[in-house]
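Q: What would this chain look like folded?
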Amino acid sequence: MERTPEVLDCWFDSGSMPFAQWHYPFENKEIFDEVFPADFISEAVDQTRGWFYTLLAINTILFGRAPFKNCIVLGHVNDKDGIKMSKHKGNVVDPWSVLDKQGADATRWYFYTASAPWLPSRFAAENVSESQRKFMGTLWNTYAFYVLYAEIDKFDPTKHKLEDCKLNILDRWILSGLNSLIDFVDKGLEQYKITETSRAIEEFCDNLSNWYVRRSRERFWGSEMTKSKEAAYMTLYTVLSTLSRLIAPYVPFMAESIYQNLVVNFDPTAPESVHLTSFPNCDESRIDRALETGMNNVLKLVVLGRAARNKSNLKNRQPLSKLMYNGRWELTEELKQLVEDELNVKEVQPSSDSDGYISYEIKPQLRTLGPKYGPLLGKIKALLAERPADVIEAIKKRKAIDEIKDEYREIRGTEQDVKSAFVCEIDGTQIVLSEEDLLITAKNKEGFSSESDGETTVVLDTSLTEDLVLEGIERELVSKVQNMRKEAGFEVTDHILLNYSAEGMAKQVLDDAKFFADVLCDGIVENGGDGFRKELDVNGHKVIVTIKKIEK
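A: My prediction, written as structure tokens:
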């Protein structure tokens, strides 16, 4: 046996792949000219000195150019602690253990959203499950919601047109968001932005489920096909069927399942697979940037408003008189109505004086001020206690420094002053305080509850009038009676008779019987009667309720 002396490095073969696969230059010149250079190549980072290099070197020498337009470098997959997987360490994950349990789509989605492709990723089955729950579970639940009600109403989307529907503000918003998403994903994929586009899809599906569907679900109830119900069906159908095509490159199996049921099942002329359809086109006429921005502000107020409610230990069913916010924007009446309904407040209004409902306690940060002003710390502390409003105002001006930086520097004169939040003089010494030098505690004034994210502050008026208390009791009673109906096994459409025993304000609400229609109560049973009985705690009031189904 003799060694052949002409053997080259095996990487020379791989570097010759772009032309050698076509037996070029000996034949297939037309094919080679058509496909060279490739749109992209993708391998892990360890191929930098292997395939990437030999491809670049050989083809540059032969053709004067790189054989690929884009190179997607993948980071290595490490274990959950960031340690390189190795058999001798025992930290290797069998791919089939994840694929068989969580599935291929969930595994793909985890890698898309966990980090940029070129960064090392930490892999564990529980991480895939979390990614699966956040996106795939949310989208599937939304799809299941549509299917449930569409089957009840025998809704056929091919017999309706979105263009003929009277869309409400939520319909217009989600359709605008859908087309903005299509535009973003389409342009992003052209630039190989996998992580950014997949996270945008995830955020959209979260808004679809937790805002659009949740705020629209009552429109799907009832037996009549009203105009509002038709618009809700067609809007949600359009979003889901379009999403099935949008997510097909990301989660092909889930996309196919949704497409088969929603599209192929009703339209015999549709392509037989979602992977044979065209990628969605952005309908710019549906995009309303102002509405999307306004709804983002609504969602911001809702999050802060919920936090303010929780802080004051007020149930969501207890109506409040007013919500004030200090954002640099105003909401339309339609958007205000959404906030009012979601947070159960009577009025939403902008306010330039949110600080009028908040008091501040400010103390010096000893860690930073001690080394600079040690002997004066006591006097600094006293000054901060005396002038909290001045300090807060100075901090607000500092937070706006990016917008007026040049003018501010001209007024103050030095870069150090620009970085400061509050400047004063004590015993002939100039004191320069930044926000980092201060310990600031915000406290709500009596009768108010506030929450802030640094840019926007929401203040709830938590004082309760008698009318508000009565309305809160009424809403609580409706909820509890509805739960009793479910526990008793009644159908949604069953009418009932009701008997009660109560005292105080709860008795006042029950005596008025204003809410009885909401629970399909047609009358009162004398002397208790028989039926499903339960003792309830309604906002601290003891109430005994008995309900009985009216037999047809």
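The first strand starts at residue 38 and ends at 44.
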